[in-house]
Design a protein that fits this description.
The complex is a heterotrimer of chains A (426), B (371) and C (80).
Chain A lengths: L1 E5 L3 H12 L3 E5 L22 E3 L2 E7 L2 E6 L8 E6 L2 E4 L3 E3 L12 E3 H11 L6 E7 L3 H10 L3 E7 L15 H14 L3 E3 L1 E7 L6 E7 L5 E8 L2 E6 L1 E3 L2 H6 L3 E2 L2 E2 L12 E3 L9 H15 L6 H20 L15 E3 L4 E2 H9 L5 H8 L12 H12 L8 H4 L8 E2 H5 L7
Parallel strand pairs in A: 1-2, 1-7, 2-3, 7-20, 9-16, 10-11, 10-16, 11-12
Antiparallel strand pairs in A: 4-5, 5-6, 8-17, 13-14, 14-15, 18-19, 21-22
Chain B lengths: L1 E5 L3 H12 L3 E6 L14 E2 L8 H17 L11 E5 L4 H12 L5 E3 L1 H7 L9 E5 L3 E2 L2 H14 L3 E4 L3 E5 L2 E4 L2 E3 L3 E4 L5 H7 L7 E10 L9 E4 L2 H6 L6 E8 L5 E7 L10 H14 L7 E12 L6 E4 L6 E5 L5 H17 L22
Parallel strand pairs in B: 1-2, 1-12, 2-8, 4-14, 12-19
Antiparallel strand pairs in B: 3-7, 4-6, 5-6, 9-10, 10-11, 13-16, 13-17, 14-15, 15-16, 18-19
Chain C lengths: L1 E4 L2 E4 L6 H7 L6 E2 L6 E2 L12 E4 L2 E5 L10 E3 L4
Classes of the chains: A alpha/beta (426), B alpha/beta (371), C mainly beta (80).
Bound molecules: flavin-adenine dinucleotide (2 copies) and FE2/S2 (inorganic) cluster (FES).
The site of one flavin-adenine dinucleotide has 45 residues of chain B, from α1, β2, β13, β16 and β17.
GO molecular function (chain B): oxidoreductase activity
Keywords (chain B): Oxidoreductase
InterPro entries (chain B): FAD-dep_OxRdtase, FAD/NAD-bd_sf
Chain lengths: 426, 371, 80
C-alpha cells in the first residue's frame, strides 16, 4: 500500500506519520527545503524515519492516482522529475493569504500578513520599522508579535471586524485557545483597533503612508486619517491551495475540499487534511492530518485525534463567522485601483467586462485579462469574482470556485523540463 | 420573423449578427454564459495558410474579408500578423501545397530559410523551406464573439445566457425556462450540436475532437508570426483517433506564447494528459530552441466540433422545417465564423448565397443520422 | 557563501532566500510590470503571487522568495 502525502505542514507531517505508523509505504512530497509548512517556518520539523521525504519537490500535475513531481531548486530548469503511483493520496497543500484589494495595495512595502510572518520567522527580516497590520482574523496577532520580535514597531493592528462574534458561542473555544487569545490581548492590546482598516496606501515607488479608516459594520468608511509608515501588511483570512484537488476532481464545498470525518474526499483514494479543507490553525490541521493519514493507509482510526477534529472544526466555524468579509470594501476602490497585479487589470476594466455580459470565469478572464498572468489568479480571483458578482446586479452569473482554481499545471515548469520527460514517467 | 439561435459561441454569434442585420428578430440562447464554450477554449487564428483548395478555403477567404467590417471599431485584438509555415525536412510537399493554394487565390510567398530567420530570428536554423502567408490574422475569440453579440443587442436582439434547449415542436423551442415561439431555430451548439440535434429530433453526426494548448509566461517579443510546422496540414485532415500534434507557435497581445495544439478523439474527457503536453513542448522547442527555459504557466483546451468529412455543416435540416444547423467548424470556427453567419442568413432569408452552399449542406453523406 | 547581486559581490548565509538577501540589502522592489512599469518586490512571500521574479544564473522568472541562494549564484534584477 503506497500513500503519498502532498505538503509538509502540520497536516501533512501528521498524515505521513500516521500512514507510516499504519504500515503503509509512505512518501511525503513538500515543495519547501525543510519540513513544517507555514506554521513551523524557521523551526524545521522532522518526520518519522519510515517516511520517504522528498524535499524541494513540487507535485505539478496529477493524472488519476499518478503524481508528477519536480525536485530541485525553485523554478530551476535543472530540476529532476519523478512520477509517483499512489494507492492513496493525502492532500495537505495548505493555504495562502487572502487579501482584499485597495488603492495602492500593489506598492512595494505592502505585504501579505503571511509574507511578513514568513520573512520574520524564516529570514529574520522585519518588513519595516513603522508598520501597520490590517485585515481581519486572529492571524493578525501572531504576525504582529513576530514583527515586534524582529524589531519592527507595530503602530496599529486594524481588524475590520470586532472579532467578538464568537464570544456568543462560548463552547466554541477551548480553554487553551482562550488563554492564547488573552495572552495576545495583554501583549498587543494597545495597538489593537477593531472595526478599522487600511483602505489606501500612498507613495511613489514604495509606501510611505496609509489611510486608516474607521468602518461601519458593513466595512464602508466612517472616517479616515493618514498614518506615516514604511510598511504595511494585510490579510483577510486564507485561500486554500486547491489546484491539485481540482485536477483530481475533488468536489468542493464553500470553496474548500469537501471531506467526510476521515478526511476522504469525493474521489476514491484521495484524502485531504489541513487548511485545504477549512481554516482552523495548526493544531486542527495536525489532528486532521493524523485522521486522514490513518484512513488513507487503512489503519485504525485515531479516536483522540478525531475528537480534536470535531471540537477544532467547531472553533474554526465560530472564528470564520466572526471574521466575515463585508461588501463595503468595494467602496474603497477607485476606477484605477488594480485588482489583478500581474496583468494590471483595474476596477474599471472589470466593470467594462461586466458590461459585455462576461458572466462566467472563462469569459470574464478573457475579456478583462484578470488572472491570466503568472500567478494565474491565485492572488486576485476571489476579489475579482466578488466584484463581478456585485457589479452584475440582478443579472445571472456563473462563477464557481472550482473554475477559479482550475490550474492543471499546478506550478510553472520550463518548456524543456516538459519536453524532456522520459517515456517511463508518462 | 423570429429566429432563435441556440449556442452563443462564435458561430451562433455570427449567425445572430447576420440575421439581425437582415432585419430578423433574434433571440440567442446558451445554457451557460455567453461565448464560454469552445470559442473560449482555443486560439484565435484566422487562417488561409492551412487550407487546401476547396470549399473550406473559399469559406475562409470570404470570412477573412468580412471579419474587420463586422466588428467595426471594437477592439478584438485583430492582428494581421501573417503566417509562416516552415519545413525542416523535405521541402517538396510544402512547395507543392503552396503552389496549388496560390492558384486558388491564396497569397503564399515562397521565401528562403535565411529570409524566414530574418522574420523570426529565434527560429531553428534547421529550416529547409518556408512559405509566408501575409493574409493570416489573429483575433481574441471571446472578444470577437462578444463584439458580434453586442451588435445583436444593439439591434434589439435578446441574449439569454443560462437557458438550456431541450426540444422542439410546433409550439417552438422547449427550454429550461419554458417554450419560446419562433419561426426558425439555428443549432449552433459547437461540439454539443450532435446531442442538441438529437434533442431537437433531427440528429446530425457532429463529434468532439479534443485539443490542448500550452501557455508560457509573458515574454519580450520573441515570436512575430503564427509559425507552424509543415506537417500541420496532414493532422487537420486526418481522422485518426490517436493523438496528433503539430507545432503551432504564436504570441498573444499580452506577451504570452501559445503552443498548440493537439488533436485527440477522447469524447468529452477533460482530464489532462501529460503525454500530450510533452509532445507540444517537444515540438515547440524543436522549432524555437530559445524557448527551452521559458516557464509554461498553463495548459487549457477544448473540444473541436467536427463532421465525418471535416467540413462545416451550414443549412436547413431536410427533416424538420424551420430547423437550421451551423456547426462542425472543427479547428477553424473562429476564422470561418464571419462567412458562416453571412451564408446562413442568406439561405434563411432566401437571398442569393455569396458562395456555393452545396458542400456544406446538411443532407450530404455521413452527416444525417437516423432519429 | 559568496554571490553576486546585479554584479556586486556579497555574502550570503545558508538558508537565505534571494528575496531575503535583497530585502536585507535594503531593496524593496526589483522588478517592473510589463504594461505600466510599476515597481514590484515581495508580496506574498510564499511563492504564490509571482511578484518577486529575478534572473538566477541567466534563467529568468525565478521566484526570489522561494529560491535559496547557493554559493556562486549570479542574481540579476530588473531595476533599482
Ligand atoms: C505565509 C503564512 C504564514 C503563516 N504563519 C502562521 C503562523 O505563524 N502561526 C499560525 O498559527 N498560523 C500561520 N499560518 C496559518 C497556517 O497556514 C496554518 O496554521 C497551518 O500551517 C496549516 O497547516 P497545513 O498543514 O494545512 O498547511 P501548510 O502549513 O500551509 O503546509 C502546506 C505545505 O504544502 C506545500 N505544498 C503546497 N502545494 C504543494 C505542491 N503542489 N507540491 C508539494 N508541496 C506543496 C507548501 O509548500 C507547504 O509546505 C500561516 C499561513 C501562511 C499562508
Ligand atoms: C485547442 C483549440 C484551438 C483552436 N484554435 C482555433 C484557431 O486558432 N482558429 C479557429 O478558427 N478555430 C480554432 N479552434 C476551433 C474553434 O474554437 C471552434 O471551431 C469554434 O469555437 C466553434 O464555435 P461554436 O460557436 O460552433 O461552438 P461553441 O463556442 O462551443 O458554442 C456552442 C455553445 O452552445 C452551447 N450549448 C450547448 N448545448 C446547449 C443547449 N442544449 N442549449 C443551449 N446552449 C447549448 C454551449 O454552451 C456553447 O456556448 C480551436 C479549438 C480548440 C479546441
Ligand atoms: S513574493 Fe509572492 S511569489 Fe515571491
Amino acid at each position: 500500500m503506497k500513500v503519498v502525502v502532498i505538503g509538509g505542514g502540520p497536516a501533512g507531517l501528521a498524515a505521513a506519520r500516521a500512514a507510516a505508523g499504519a504500515g503503509a509505504d509512505t512518501v511525503l512530497v513538500d515543495s519547501e527545503p525543510t519540513l513544517g509548512g507555514q506554521f513551523h517556518r524557521g523551526d524545521p520539523q522532522r518526520v518519522d524515519p519510515r517516511v520517504r521525504h522528498l524535499a524541494n519537490s513540487t507535485v505539478w500535475a496529477v493524472e488519476g492516482m499518478r503524481l508528477h513531481v519536480r525536485t530541485g531548486p525553485a523554478d530551476s530548469p535543472s530540476r529532476t522529475g519523478e512520477t509517483l503511483n499512489a494507492d492513496a493520496v493525502v492532500l495537505a497543500t495548505g493555504a495562502h493569504d487572502r487579501v482584499v484589494p485597495f488603492p495602492g495595495w500593489d506598492l512595494p512595502g505592502v505585504y501579505t500578513a503571511g509574507a511578513a510572518q514568513a520573512l520574520a520567522k524564516g529570514q529574520k527580516i522585519a518588513i519595516g520599522h513603522r508598520v501597520v497590520v490590517s485585515g481581519t482574523g486572529p492571524f493578525l496577532l501572531p504576525v504582529a508579535e513576530s514583527l515586534k520580535a524582529v524589531g519592527a514597531e507595530v503602530l496599529r493592528i486594524c481588524d475590520a471586524n470586532t472579532g467578538l462574534g464568537w464570544l456568543g458561542r462560548p463552547r466554541a473555544a477551548s480553554p487553551a485557545k482562550l488563554a492564547e487569545l488573552l495572552g495576545y490581548a495583554v501583549r498587543l492590546g494597545a495597538a489593537w483597533r477593531p472595526r478599522t482598516a487600511v483602505v489606501a496606501a500612498h507613495g511613489e515607488d514604495r509606501v510611505n503612508a496609509v489611510t486608516v479608516a474607521k468602518l461601519n459594520p458593513d466595512w464602508t468608511i466612517r472616517s479616515q486619517e493618514r498614518v506615516a509608515v514604511d510598511a504595511v501588511c494585510v490579510g483577510h483570512g486564507f485561500t486554500p491551495r486547491l489546484e491539485l484537488a481540482v485536477a483530481a476532481g475533488c468536489v468542493l464545498t464553500d470553496g474548500f475540499v469537501q471531506v467526510d470525518h476521515t478526511g476522504a474526499t469525493s474521489v476514491p483514494g484521495w484524502y485531504a487534511a489541513g487548511e485545504v479543507t477549512g481554516i482552523g490553525g495548526a493544531d486542527l490541521a495536525a489532528a486532521e492530518g493524523e485522521v486522514a493519514g490513518a484512513a488513507a493507509a487503512r489503519g485504525a482510526c485515531p479516536t483522540k485525534a478525531l475528537a480534536k477534529v470535531r471540537s477544532g472544526r467547531r472553533f474554526a466555524a465560530a472564528l470564520a463567522d466572526a471574521h466575515p468579509i463585508r461588501p463595503g470594501w468595494h467602496t474603497w476602490l477607485t476606477d484605477n485601483t488594480l485588482i489583478c497585479r500581474c496583468e494590471e487589470v483595474t476596477y474599471k476594466d472589470l466593470r467594462a467586462a461586466v458590461d459585455l455580459e462576461a458572466s462566467g470565469t472563462r469569459t470574464f478572464k478573457l475579456t478583462s485579462r484578470i488572472g491570466l498572468g503568472l500567478c494565474q489568479g491565485r492572488t486576485c480571483a476571489r476579489a475579482a469574482v466578488d466584484i463581478a458578482t456585485a457589479l452584475s446586479g440582478d443579472r445571472r452569473t456563473f462563477f464557481t470556485p472550482a473554475d477559479l482554481q482550475r490550474r492543471p499545471i499546478a506550478t510553472p515548469l520550463r518548456l524543456a523540463e516538459l519536453a524532456s520527460l522520459p517515456e517511463e514517467d508518462l | 420573423m423570429d429566429v432563435v439561435v441556440v449556442g452563443a459561441g462564435v458561430i451562433g454569434a455570427a449567425c445572430a449578427d447576420a440575421l439581425s442585420a437582415a432585419g430578423l428578430r433574434v433571440t440567442v440562447l446558451d445554457r451557460g454564459p455567453l461565448a464560454s464554450g469552445t470559442s473560449a477554449a482555443g486560439e484565435g487564428n484566422i487562417l488561409v495558410s492551412d487550407k487546401e483548395p476547396g470549399p473550406e478555403l473559399d469559406l475562409a477567404l470570404s470570412s477573412l474579408s468580412r471579419w474587420p467590417a463586422l466588428v467595426g471599431d471594437t477592439d478584438i485584438e485583430w492582428d494581421p500578423k501573417g503566417g509562416l509555415v516552415v519545413a525542416t525536412g523535405d521541402p517538396a510537399p510544402l512547395a507543392h501545397f503552396a503552389a496549388v493554394q496560390r492558384e486558388a487565390g491564396v497569397d503564399a510567398r515562397w521565401i528562403t530559410p535565411a529570409e524566414a530567420l530574418e522574420r523570426e530570428p529565434h527560429l531553428t536554423t534547421r529550416v529547409t523551406a518556408a512559405v509566408h502567408y501575409p493574409q493570416d490574422a489573429q483575433v481574441q475569440p471571446v472578444l470577437a464573439a462578444q463584439a458580434l453579440l453586442s451588435n445583436v443587442r444593439r439591434r434589439g436582439g435578446v441574449l439569454r445566457p443560462g437557458v438550456t434547449v431541450v426540444g422542439l415542436d410546433a409550439r417552438g423551442v422547449h427550454t429550461s425556462e419554458g417554450v419560446i415561439a419562433c419561426d426558425h431555430v439555428v443549432n449552433a451548439c459547437g461540439p454539443w450540436s450532435g446531442e442538441v440535434s438529437r434533442a431537437l429530433g433531427a440528429p446530425i453526426a457532429i463529434a468532439p475532437r479534443r485539443g490542448m494548448v500550452l501557455v508560457t509566461a509573458p515574454l519580450p517579443p520573441t515570436v512575430h508570426h503564427k509559425v507552424y510546422d509543415a506537417d500541420y496540414v496532414g493532422a487537420v485532415a486526418s481522422g485518426d483517433a490517436d493523438l496528433q500534434t503539430s507545432t503551432v507557435v504564436e504570441s498573444t497581445a499580452a506577451g504570452t506564447i501559445l503552443i498548440g495544439s493537439s488533436r485527440e478523439r477522447v469524447g468529452f474527457d477533460e482530464s489532462i494528459r501529460i503525454r500530450v503536453l510533452r509532445e507540444l513542448a517537444r515540438k515547440a522547442v524543436a522549432l524555437f530552441p530559445s524557448l527551452a527555459d521559458v516557464p509554461v504557466m498553463r495548459a487549457y483546451g477544448g473540444f473541436r466540433p467536427y463532421a465525418p468529412d471535416h467540413l462545416p455543416v451550414i443549412g436547413a435540416d431536410p427533416r424538420v422545417p424551420g430547423l437550421w444547423h451551423a456547426t462542425g467548424h472543427e479547428g477553424a470556427g473562429i476564422g470561418l465564423a464571419a462567412a458562416t453567419g453571412a451564408l446562413l442568413a442568406e439561405l434563411l432569408t432566401g437571398a442569393t448565397p455569396h458562395l456555393d452552399p452545396t458542400p456544406f449542406r446538411v443532407d450530404r453523406p455521413g452527416v444525417l443520422e437516423c432519429a | 557563501m559568496r554571490v553576486t547581486i546585479d554584479g556586486v559581490p556579497s555574502q550570503a548565509t545558508p538558508g537565505q532566500t534571494v528575496a531575503g538577501a535583497l530585502l536585507a540589502a535594503g531593496r524593496t522592489s526589483w522588478r517592473t510590470t510589463r504594461v505600466k512599469s510599476r515597481p514590484r518586490g515581495v508580496f506574498c512571500g510564499i511563492g504564490v503571487c509571482f511578484d518577486c521574479l529575478v534572473t538566477v544564473n541567466g534563467v529568468a522568472d525565478v521566484r526570489a522568495c522561494q529560491r535559496l541562494l547557493v554559493d556562486g549564484d549570479d542574481i540579476r534584477t530588473e531595476g533599482p
